[in-house]
């Protein structure tokens, strides 16, 4: 048995991070999403609330691919959806509706990620959306909120309805559209996004195999979700996982180093 212990870094709460550190970590998150093939042309967003900036948040400039996001070109957007700092770029109004309202009203949330990957977009077309009978899906049991499709999220009157749909959850299924996940910091949000993406991939693969799926008892799914939540609440674990994936990406894609 290997008794060597790997040093676990203390979790760095976002409130203890400087804006510069948040910019670097958020740019890494954008690159990681691209590296994993989860992008949608120039669309979608990942945002991070800036501590002490009156709910302002960092987000990608409209018109750049995730590969082109850098710590320097991330925008600072205020609760009114307008730029708080000068930039040659503009924010995408579709990002403001969803991200702005969550950053304004969910103080427990530091980071939000929204994707339209094919497996996620496919399962959210289904009435049941996320199936909780696979390993990753079971971890999300009882932890998913749902919002009905109203079109592209560019209208301010949908903001309050999206916030109400999310409630106190961290996963919001945008029916017939995609997913939004939110967590306290960047590594935790990446970990949750990865769990949802894997659940969707497995669900799609299982749906292509004839025959009934084994249905898990409710108590098993509940226990699995509770155990997973303890892991997901462990910011040190999420940071280990995030940093390992960033190192792997930078080894294979040195342009992101
Ligand atoms: Zn979208």
Automatic annotation (TrEMBL):
GO terms for cellular component: cytoskeleton. It comes from Celeribacter persicus. It comes from the Bacteria. This is Ribulose-5-phosphate 4-epimerase/fuculose-1-phosphate aldolase. InterPro entries: Aldolase-II_Adducin_sf, Aldolase_II/adducin_N, Aldolase_II/adducin_N_sf. Transmembrane segments: none annotated. Belongs to the aldolase class II family. Residues 24-204 form the Class II aldolase/adducin N-terminal domain. Gene3D superfamilies: Class II aldolase/adducin N-terminal domain. One of its GO terms (molecular function) is actin filament binding.
